[in-house]
Amino acid sequence: MIILRFPKSVTKKELTQALARLKSIHSDVYAINRERQDSIDVICDSDADDDKLLKMSGAIAVLRSQVSYILASRAYQNVGTDIPLSGHWQRGAAPLIIGGPCSVEDRVQVLEIAHAVHEAGADAFRGGAFKPRTSPYAFQGIGKKGYEYLAEVRAQTGLPVISEVMSAEQAHIASEYIDVLQVGARNMQNVPLLNALGKLSKPVLLKRGFSATTEELLLSAEYILRNGNRQVLLCERGIRTFETETRFTFDINAVPALKEKSHLPVLGDPSHATGKRNYVESISLAAIAAGADGLIIEVHTDPDSAISDGPQTVSVEAFARLVKKVKKVYALVKSMRRADDL
Ligand code: PEP
Ligand code: MN
Q1: What is the pTM of this model?
Q2: Is 102's C-beta closer than 6 angstroms to any atom of ligand 1?
């Protein structure tokens, strides 16, 4: 992969000429990145040598990268990506804590849980309206009405709201109501969905598929970034192993690996990773100690009555205790690292 770098002052004419020249020498142009402060970068593949590429009008540098997920890589952008969430989260200052039920069940339930998680210190609220269940006979979510209730949650609590989308069509509907669009593990490689999200201007919470490598996760993020949307949060939510004691296995290694390879924020999801509410706090603390930027946790006012994922859902009281401990561990870890690493 090649980055052909131009100064911010490059003219439209120079850029058009360079792109035409690249085409004429059979180079593939993948993306033009205008987000950097000091340059405009053309991401491409070419057999041409550096001298030939530097002859393009306006070009100032040629950088070659071995990684396939160039835009997501630290090699390309060393500083961590900020996801402002309308002022609810400042990268590096505190962990991003997202709480809420697996499913939006009804209006009363979702508002009650939202007020409780807000009180407990959550920075954002998550609830599934369309649910990608393993079984077609399991509860599939209440659909669009769920997005409407979530918009009401934001209006009442001020918290940004997050919900899953499974198709480009759902993404367009959701973006009218929802602040962060979630891609579930089962859709990590749904290419039309990733492309559609890349064209929207809402942050995307991208979960790792349970059989996907961290490189595959970064390549899925790359689809979104390449389409122009740079607001992506990565989420480790457990992978499938031979262990049957827990629902999945939280891949703690993925946290430092993703943080090293990418500038995108990394979240841990201990609820789906363990499938057991008694383990959620330990794995939350472990994820933060390993360098995660935040957590997404399933919470319910009455976990045993939750329509989906009850066994892994913690009570509001347990969530409140967990938030306090997570903040302490985050502060401790932060004090032991250089600010740049976060
Ligand atoms: C969820 O967040 O409720 C969910 C279905 O998660 P995952 O896609 O990680 O299985
Ligand atoms: Mn769930």
Answers
A1: 0.93
A2: yes
